[in-house]
Design a protein that fits this description.
Blueprint (H helix, E strand, L loop, with lengths): L1 H8 L9 H10 L36
Amino acid sequence: MHLDFLKDAFEHVEFPNLFYEAKNVITKLGLNYIKIPACPEDYMLYWGEDNESLEECKWCKTSK
């Protein structure tokens, strides 16, 4: 949905249609990205010293 909005807002810009294509563009530009696991219900990110080792969400208790 966000990608469709960006495509409509910036008609003259070519956006990649697939995640794989976007990842290749980022790599070719010399930029890096980090995958950060998130709660399936969007309550938290498993990021930082306190949360990286957790296996379930602090609030809803769903599995990582």
